[in-house]
């Protein structure tokens, strides 16, 4: 580069000519151009960076959103099928322990412990499991018997029967159970292995136990229980109403007799005499 | 000193954040539901030792039996007290059935229940006296 004034050689960074002292206009122009280009470069860079940052944020949001939607769909599938998964897991567990459960069920049947039978069956989730299908019909009748037993042998029954409404509820529920007890298992949709001769004998034994309970704790006569299978629901309800009301009346009479009887174990007079020397307080 | 640039949040960002938070909450809710469904209820019912003792104290022998029947899982480990009281519950059941079969004149079934009564009286251990109380209540003695 040469000085446009005196022609002396100049360097790019010289602001003035070292020979004539004239300003180096070319260098100044060059510097101005450089600053301009640099500014343009920076602006373009900023613009590109801003655009790419925005695009990056949007992509991030979209990725997270898509992941969340997919996870929600998967979770919805699992939650709507949770019962099926649970049932399947229990079925596998029950099948694994089949020999233990069968031994327990057979022992209960052998000991005529039908009252505990249904609860064992359902609480251990054996219902619907292939290995236990043969017990299905028996369970239904054992359930009816369990309800009859609950109404007649519950230690709290007299307190419950005091209310007319509660007594009527008992009568309605018990009559339904009694009707169910005498349903023909062969006319229901039980599988064949559930209604074999052996299982039908168990069902008959369950009915016998229910009849014995009704005679002993329900006030039924032997003739009435023999007739149960032919009775209508309303007639069973009438019979139950008659007997349970009689039992309740008898119980109330016993209670009022007990209340009226003087309590010899405690005397207020003796208490005063002992603690206050016989003075009236 | 370089001043830190204030970060601006765009309307779109707020919108996406709200949706993502909402989906996260639904996901957590579904997770809790699935966990509880899978966990629930392998055991429907538990009675603890205090429940058993309380029912014996109130002479609510049916409730003792009911608790024993409900808690019927083969792999449950019961305490010694629970075992004794559970046996007492089954004694109540056998005794009520014994009386029923005796009244109905079914001697074979009555004897079967009597054998159960004897077995459960022995198993009732320190609660065997309660078996005598059950006999009194059922007028068996």
The N- and C-terminal alpha carbons of chain B lie at a distance of: 101 Å
Major sheet details of chain B: none
Question: What count of helical segments of chain B does DSSP give?
Answer: 6
The counted number of beta strands of chain B is 0
SSE order of chain A: HHHHHHHHHHH
Q: How many structural domains in the coordinates of chain B?
A: 2
Low-confidence stretches of chain B: none
Overview of the molecule:
By secondary structure, chain A is mainly α. In chain A, 71% of the residues lie in helices and 0% in strands. Chain A has a domain of 160 residues. Chain B folds into two domains: 31 residues; 89 residues, no CATH class. Chain B is 71% helix and 0% strand.
Keywords:
heterodimer, A: 281 residues, mainly alpha, 11 helices, 71% helix, 0% strand, elongated, B: 141 residues, 6 helices, rod-shaped
Quick recap of the structure?
Chain A is 71% helix and 0% strand. With 281 residues, chain A is mainly alpha-helical.
SSE arrangement:
The complex is a heterodimer of chains A (281) and B (141).
Chain A: H1 25-80, H2 82-96, H3 98-110, H4 114-123, H5 136-153, H6 157-161, H7 164-181, H8 197-217, H9 222-227, H10 233-260, H11 268-276
Helix pairs in contact in A: 4-5, 5-7, 5-8, 7-10
Chain B: H1 11-39, H2 49-57, H3 61-70, H4 80-104, H5 107-123, H6 128-137
Helix pairs in contact in B: 2-3, 2-4, 3-4, 4-5, 4-6
């Amino acid at each position: 580069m040469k000085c446009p004034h005196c022609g002396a050689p100049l360097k790019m960074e010289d602001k003035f000519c070292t020979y004539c002292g004239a300003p180096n206009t070319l260098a100044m122009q060059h510097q101005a151009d450089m600053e301009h280009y640099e500014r343009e470069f920076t602006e373009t860079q900023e613009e590109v960076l801003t655009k790419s940052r925005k695009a990056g944020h949007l992509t991030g949001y979209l990725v997270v959103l898509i992941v969340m939607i997919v996870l929600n769909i998967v979770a919805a599938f699992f939650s709507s099928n949770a019962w099926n998964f649970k049932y399947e897991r229990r079925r596998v567990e029950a099948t694994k322990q089949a020999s233990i459960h069968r031994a327990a069920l057979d022992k209960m049947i052998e000991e005529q412990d039908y009252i505990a039978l249904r609860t064992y069956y359902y609480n251990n989730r054996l219902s619907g499991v292939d290995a236990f299908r043969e017990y299905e019909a028996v369970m239904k009748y054992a359930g009816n018997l369990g309800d009859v037993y609950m109404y007649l042998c519950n230690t709290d029954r007299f307190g419950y029967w005091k209310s007319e409404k509660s007594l009527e509820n008992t009568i309605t529920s018990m009559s339904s159970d009694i009707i169910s007890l005498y349903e023909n298992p062969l006319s229901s949709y039980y599988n064949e292995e559930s209604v074999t001769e052996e299982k039908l004998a168990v069902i008959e034994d369950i009915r016998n136990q229910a009849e014995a309970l009704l005679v002993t704790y329900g006030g039924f006569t032997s003739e009435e229980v023999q007739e149960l299978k032919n009775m209508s629901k309303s007639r069973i309800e009438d019979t139950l109403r008659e007997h349970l009301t009689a039992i309740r009346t008898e119980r109330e009479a016993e209670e009022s007799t007990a209340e009226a009887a003087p309590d010899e174990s405690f005397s207020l007079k003796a208490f005063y005499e002992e603690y206050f020397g016989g003075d009236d307080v | 000193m370089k001043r830190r640039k204030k970060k601006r949040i765009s309307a779109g960002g707020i919108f996406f954040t709200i949706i993502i938070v909402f989906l996260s909450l639904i996901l957590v809710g579904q997770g809790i539901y699935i966990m509880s469904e899978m966990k629930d209820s392998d055991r429907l019912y538990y009675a603890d030792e205090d429940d058993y003792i309380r029912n014996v104290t109130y002479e609510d022998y049916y409730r003792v039996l009911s608790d024993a029947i409900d808690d019927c899982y083969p792999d449950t480990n019961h305490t010694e007290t629970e075992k004794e009281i559970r046996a007492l519950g089954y004694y109540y059941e056998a005794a009520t059935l014994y009386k029923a079969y005796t009244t109905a004149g079914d001697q074979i079934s009555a004897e079967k229940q009597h054998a159960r009564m004897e077995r459960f009286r022995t198993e009732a251990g320190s609660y065997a006296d309660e078996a005598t109380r059950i006999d009194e209540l059922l007028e068996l003695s």
